[in-house]
Amino acid sequence: AGSTYIILNTLGATFGANLAGEVRNVQKSQLLALFGSLTILMSIWAIFYGMSYKAWGAHWTNCLMFLAGTGNEVYTSLPIGNLEPFATIMVGIMTKSGVFVFLIAAAFFMATFGSTAGMSFGPIRNIYAWGFDRMVPEALAKLHPKTSAPWNASMVAIVGAEFFLLVDIYLPAWTANIAYTIFTWFIGWIFLGIAGMVFPYRRKLLFESAPPIVKKRLFGIPVVSILGFFTLIISVAICIYLLIPFVQGLLPYTMIVVSGALFIIPLILYYYSKNQYAKKGVDIDIQFKEIPSQ
Question: What's this model's pTM, rounded to 2 decimal places?
Fold first, then answer.
């Protein structure tokens, strides 16, 4: 569970891609936002995790994480048994300072408020893009006549968020392992890594027309292919690693069901849309043979 949350700490940085279309000088700003946010966040978390391991030792800390992740009564019977052993909570206990604990709580509230604003923009932007690309009904790509906001996409995102909230309230067993859907996320990144590796060779015209930073080479090999290779290796390794608790019987079947659903549903939507437009004589794959103007 601990490694899962460490990985989850980095995923928010990807939402910077949703803002790229509204950023000036995107080649410089986007790289700074993406890698800068990762550097700052991982540095902060390295300090917190380092303090925990330094204070209690790696063996004790790992055992605590294991007991919490498996719901062992040895952990659940503790005063913090209803909480997950986040590094911030453990550091708060370690300092025995009420002021520090309050500051952690205040920082968590502010960070959550800020991330909610950013992460709510991401899904809306995605739904709008899906409508624009005909992956879902085109009505979701329509803008409000007065505000020019993606009103339909926003409504779908709100309904989806409320649905997950209700599931979390009344069927918590299905959302208790939502963190492990990172497994599905990295399955997607496996395909992303493969695409990055073959892109310069399968789509030479697109590669040559891409911005200079995309066409850079290292020892004659396109950098995008090298990064794609590392993305593939890391993603496969993480997927295997995240499956270990499930194979050992430490996680319920809902982990695989939820992850599988999040992976299969988009495929169903894509092929359904492809089939529907094919009946109208429209090949939606043509639009993916060029880099979008935005």
Answer: 0.68
